[in-house]
Amino acid sequence: MRCPNPDCTAVDTNVVDSRPAEEGGAVRRRRECKACGRRFTTFERIERAERLMVIKRDGSRVAFDGERVLAGIQQACSKRPIEAAIMERIATLVEDELHRRFAREVDSAEIGRSVAVKLREVDPVAYIRYASVYYAFRSVEDFAAEITALQERPPVGDHPTLFGEGKPKS
Ligand SMILES: [Zn+2]
Predict the structure, then answer these.
(1) For the chain, N or C: smaller number of CB within 10 Å?
(2) pTM
(3) In angstroms, what is the span from residue 81 Cα to ligand 1's centroid?
(4) pLDDT tens digit sequence for 109-167
(5) Which protein residues have their CB within 5 A of the ion that is ligand 1?
(6) Angstrom distances, CA of residue 162 to CA of 71, 103, 110, 116, 157
(7) Is 159:117 a contact under the CB 8 Å cutoff?
(8) Rounded distance from Cα 12 to ligand 1 centre (Å)
């Protein structure tokens, strides 16, 4: 790693500290130039050279777009008491999960399911809104069954990581 000091540009560095960052998705390293002593930070992340393709309901394929996932979440959460940071957090979790589970292609219904499961924990209204559009209930009966299930089993605790590792589990 070349030293960022323009008067130096040596390539030999010592790693003086190394720790997980971005919730384990990256490694943060503090480096020190062996020549001039300048310290700087680098991040190591998994390369996603191959873009994940989404298979839409009509069979066509589009590149996975995290912004579209977030837009769908924001739409479902419209006028609900949900912080923007929570919506972004859900979108990030969904994107990470999909990249972990699917190497090249993912069915659009899987994306819907992944978002819906997380929204269910956050807000029942946002969840039903989202589910009715993206989760593709096939009939009114399916929809009614989901609402009944939601009432019977309060949506808590499936994803303790949703709000960060620091929060104690209840
Ligand atoms: Zn240097």
Answers:
(1) C
(2) 0.58
(3) 50
(4) 889 889 988 998 899 889 888 887 766 666 677 777 777 777 776 555 444 455 544 44
(5) 3, 5, 8, 10, 33, 35-36, 38
(6) 19, 23, 18, 13, 9
(7) yes
(8) 8
